[in-house]
Amino acid sequence: MARFLRNRKFYLINDSQQYASELERRCRPYLKPSTDSWRVDETYIRVKKEWVYLYRAVDSQGNTLDFFLSLTRDAEAAKCFFLKTFAASHATEPRVINVDKNAAYPKACAELKAEGHIPEHCELRQAKYLNNLVEQDHRFIKRLTKPGMGFFSMKTAWQTLRGYEMMNMLRKGQVQGVEKGDVGGQAALVAKLFGVAD
């Protein structure tokens, strides 16, 4: 296990896809709380030769809040993503949500405020330069997905992306008791969560 992590090849691909959702489920309770300043953006992933949208959010320190795969890039997809992110146990209620100029975000935010899902005091700020942090964070996904020919179904894309995202959270030091760069600690945690010897 440690050898795979050290070589940065423990990416839960092929027959290991089945473990990605389980890894995410077991790691989530150990994630450190986020800050109250969110950066939200979406990037493109190829599934069955078509582009789909991976919504992602990080906090002001670059820690991943949540992610969501959608066939569409509209207010309904943005609402689903916001609801999923607000439900994440480690996501601190935001003081401000920074987004780009995508018109779907203000509409989604207004509807969620009206429904009581987002607090009234939360500010939605549309400023592209403020989202550089999340745009830079997309790079690790692109680095993993770009060399391949894309995914063959939404299901396999979602399973694999969950593994990518959780391993990236581990590497960024988002899990309690394991610091950034502590490869041995990361390997030990995964081994412990799955009840296997290193």
From TrEMBL:
GO MF annotation list: DNA binding
GO terms, biological process: DNA integration; DNA recombination; transposition
InterPro entries in the record: DDE_dom (IPR032874), Integrase_cat-core (IPR001584), IS_Transposase (IPR052183), Transpos_IS6 (IPR047930)
Residue ranges of domain Integrase catalytic in the record: 25-188
DNA-binding is among the record's keywords: yes
Keyword Amino-acid biosynthesis: no
Keywords, in A-Z order: DNA recombination, DNA-binding, Transposition
PROSITE patterns xrefs: INTEGRASE
Protein name as annotated: Integrase catalytic region
Organism: Ktedonobacter racemifer DSM 44963
